[in-house]
Design goal:
The chain is α/β, with parallel strands linked by helices. It contains 16 helices and eight strands. It has a five-stranded parallel beta sheet, with helices on both faces. Helix 9 crosses helix 10. 39% of the residues are buried.
Length: 480
């Protein structure tokens, strides 16, 4: 029977080779080729709120339609385009729409899919991806979350980093290996362009970076119109009102908002989606789902009400703060209570006064605990964390402290311990100054806080008009 051992060994090796080949992407289907006639047909008309990005990609469409056009006068089309911006802003949708507008095949792959268990497999997948693209040319190669593949090299000496560097090197070789007029365009997306390797982003590889930012009010309204198609809305429901009340929402957030509103309307057996359903969905997204099954005793409810009332008191007192929209002592997500502010407009530039007001409001809950409860609770931990984060950015990134215009850069960048100590002291000075402010406001507004706490203990949640009634102030149109 010993004569069978070589044959069994050969069979096992053949099986292992086959499995490795399959995991390396031996099937072209791993790259999800599709075109404008596929199920996921998306065109520029389906992508709203990113008009500038669509204009930037229009040249790519012309190149894919006529690859020789850019060479007639000696010019060259961009070889690679990097779409950068926050999550949910439509980067993947834009890339697919560009390919479909040009009628070109679309090869889609995630940057993380190049991270394999066996050394060398990531580089092999890169080679297979470009080989497939050459067969389909003209086409678009889309690499989603390229930061998983294209991080700065040389960060570590371990085997995983070495393999990732090898995969990135192979991508650079492939990008250098196709002609400018070959009809191939690489589009990649990232939320972190700052961590990409400089060799990847230099001209000749990713020639152009297109910012896909969060939409303004007009852009959000356009996005809502796209996602509202097929939904039954009440006649008086104004999409412009929804857009004004959702600053900072991405396209994905807005789609989720309308979907949650539709679910709420269905649960209520309503014939159409109305304003209460939209407000419910917005509160759920911003503050988390209500945990009505989670019961607090009266002492905990009172402490939570005092804490939230402290936030409200400081939020109403500061000059540059956002209007208070709602306050609740119903547990939501991981919080026992929530105070919600909504900006009246999109803030493109955050001034020092606004940041200081944010810190003071965050510390208002702890200030109320100290003065009105004569104790401190762990409920302020997240508030303190966020306040310190803002203060540290003011010192170490924005240059808004006596230390002057300094920037610490990335954590791995060299810096002296003396500088770090000075940054911590400056950060602490900002926190202490705003804590003093918050304590002064809470002390001055004891009676108003008591009225607000009474309302919260009675009704759990108070809207803007009820909040301002307790404090004898006037609600803004946005908050109402």
């Amino acid at each position: 029977m010993t004569w069978m051992i070589p044959f069994l060994t050969a069979a096992v090796l053949a099986f292992v080779v086959w499995r490795v080949y399959a995991q390396m992407g031996g099937r072209s289907g791993d790259f999800n080729p599709s075109d404008a006639s596929g199920k996921q047909s998306v065109y520029f008309k389906d992508v709203a709120g990113v008009d500038e990005a669509k204009a930037e990609l229009s040249e790519t469409i012309e190149f894919l339609r006529d690859p020789e056009k850019f060479g007639r006068l000696g010019g060259r089309a961009p070889r690679g385009i990097l779409l950068s911006g926050p999550p949910g802003t439509g980067k993947t949708l834009l890339a697919r729409a560009a390919a479909n507008e040009a009628g070109a095949p679309f090869l889609s792959v995630s940057g993380s899919s190049f991270q394999e268990k066996f050394a060398g497999m990531g580089a092999a997948r890169v080679r297979r991806l470009f080989a497939e693209a050459r067969k389909l040319s003209p086409c678009v190669i889309f690499i989603d979350e390229i930061d998983a593949l294209g991080r700065q090299r040389g960060r570590s000496n371990d085997s995983a980093s070495a393999d990732q560097d090898q995969t990135l090197n192979q991508l650079l070789v492939e990008m250098d290996g196709f002609e400018h007029h070959s009809g191939m365009v690489i589009i990649a997306s990232t939320n972190r362009p700052d961590i990409l390797d400089s060799a990847l982003t230099r001209p000749g590889r990713f020639d152009r970076e297109v910012a896909v930012n969060l939409a303004d009010a007009n852009g959000r309204e356009a996005i809502l119109k796209v996602h509202a198609q097929g939904l039954t809305l009440e006649e008086g429901l104004d999409l412009r009102w929804i857009a004004r009340g959702t600053p900072g929402f991405s396209g994905a957030d807005l789609a989720n908002l309308l979907n949650e509103a539709a679910i709420a309307a269905t649960r209520d057996n309503s014939e159409a989606i109305g304003r209460p359903h939209v407000e419910y969905a917005r509160d759920k997204i911003l503050m988390g789902a209500e945990r009505r099954g989670f019961m607090m005793d009266e002492e905990e409810r009172y402490a939570t009400a005092v804490h939230e009332a402290g936030h409200v008191a400081v939020g109403l007192a500061v000059k540059d703060g956002d209007p208070i929209h709602k306050v609740s002592i119903l547990p939501r997500g991981r919080a026992l209570g929530v105070t919600q502010s909504l900006p009246e407009r999109d803030r493109l530039m955050k001034k020092r006064g606004y940041l200081e007001d944010q810190i003071a409001m965050l510390l208002g809950g702890r200030a109320a605990e100290q003065l009105l409860l004569d104790t401190m609770t762990a409920g302020a931990s997240n508030d303190i964390e966020r306040a310190v984060e803002i203060a540290r950015k003011m010192v170490a990134e924005f240059g808004m402290s006596p230390l002057g215009p300094i920037h610490l850069g990335k954590p791995e960048d060299p810096r002296s311990q003396t500088l770090l100590d000075r940054v911590e002291h400056a950060t602490s000075d900002i926190i202490n100054a705003q804590m003093k402010r918050a304590l002064e406001v809470v002390d001055q507004e004891r009676e108003s806080i008591a009225r607000l706490v009474e309302g919260l203990m009675d009704r759990d949640t108070l809207e803007a008009d009820e909040i301002h009634q307790a404090f004898g102030t006037k609600a803004s149109a946005q908050a109402a």
